[in-house]
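Journal club prep — side note

Before the paper discussion, L.F. wants everyone to see what a predicted structure for a comparable chain looks like in token form. Sequence:
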Amino acid sequence: MRTLTSLLLILAGSYCLYQFTVRTTLPEERSKTIDYKARPAVSDLGENYPVNALLATGALWGILLGLFLALTTAPKFQPAGDGALYQKRRKGGAIARIFLLNAALAGTFIDLAYVGVAYTPSGPEEAVTRYVGLFFGVAALQLAIGLLLLILALCEKPKGKLSLILGILLYLTAVGTWILTYLWGKQG
């Protein structure tokens, strides 16, 4: 089942990446009248704000989660002394892994809000403000939940040290970006 899920996630991520690149390339009639400048498609994240940013995010999450599931699907047989196929053992760091995933999602939502504040053209301000506020609010909620998860992960035994360290780095980066987005949003 994990193999099928990873395949579906990779296909969905590839489709989102295809849609993102198609939407950010110049149409044929405009490309004949404008001098073409080679630039990455990421520079157009703010043009069609919520659609382009969500497609790029969906592509990134779909492909990365699909690859993660595909690489971790092998069954792990552990010989046990009593003849059982699997040895029941609690793997440490479950809360730390949830904290890591929450920090990555909080960073994703705050990056979506940051793109709306920093890179959106100045014309459609009212329509963009609604989406920036939504992404900003979801990121604030996830950062608050992340603080609780951090406290629980620090008290957990056995600790998942790698997940905890990566989660703390992502969490601090998301908090810094949240503060920067808040300050830039107040100026605009």
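L.F.'s comment for the group: Residues 125-155 form the longest helix (31 residues). Keep this in mind when we get to the figures.
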